[in-house]
Amino acid sequence: MTETVGGRNRALTRVRRLARDRTFRRDEGVYLVEGPTLIVDALLAGREVEQVLVPSASASSDVVAAAKRSNVPCLLVDDDVFDGLTTTRSAQPAVAVVDRHDVPLADLPTDGVLVVLAELADPGNAGTLVRSAEAFGASGIVFAGGVDPYNPKCVRATAGSLFRLPFAIFEGTDAIGQAFGQIEGSGRTSWGSVSDGGIAPTEVPDDEPMALLLGNEPHGLADDILARCDGLVTIPTTGSGDSLNVAVAGSVLLYALATR
Questions:
Q1: How far apart are CA 32 and CA 14, in angstroms?
Q2: 179 shares its domain with 94
Q3: Taking burial as the number of CB atoms within 10 A of a residue's CB, which of 97, 123, 133, 166 is the most buried?
Q4: Which residues, including other chains, have CB under 8 Å from residue 178's CB and lie 6 or more apart?
């Protein structure tokens, strides 16, 4: 079904709030996916797409055709109104409302590496790590405090990996503690990433499932969390730089762990 709407439509007001309001996304149980390529990726991954919105000028686009094949309703939005719906500086030519699909930690696969993002603040870094986690065969992701994985910038940075890699979310003042408690009871060993003082990732035992904990950008992992880890891991470096960006460090660690 395709419908044409103007600027005061209730669906458009809802989309604008979903783009900017974390609490509203949680309460509604949905989030936004921006851009034709990512929308098609979401459809191919079997995600529940509630609605696709495109500017009127894109009525015959491939993403509209893909939505119709999947029986997803499409809204054609006046071109001048559509520009205000997306969060990017240059408007993406399509947005979709998609059902949330995070799962409890207990439902994440127990084999391989579970990546725990502990209070990461930057959605771009978090999204990059989701993308790297899929590329290097991680079994899942845990967002423990910090960034909302359904933040539009994070969704874009995952380049579609968010639709395919299972993940859990912990929120609140003790998000990391709650996540860690469940990880400890899951049979996984826990390895904290530190800038120095840990063993090389290639030396981490590969005979049991593990969780790799990555701390937030300015401060890293808290001392009490490091004390609870079964081991610490450090990337050996040869240059004089102070430290690696968390997205870079996490990606290098995931590559090294995958090649053990």
A1: 10
A2: no
A3: 133
A4: 144, 170, 172
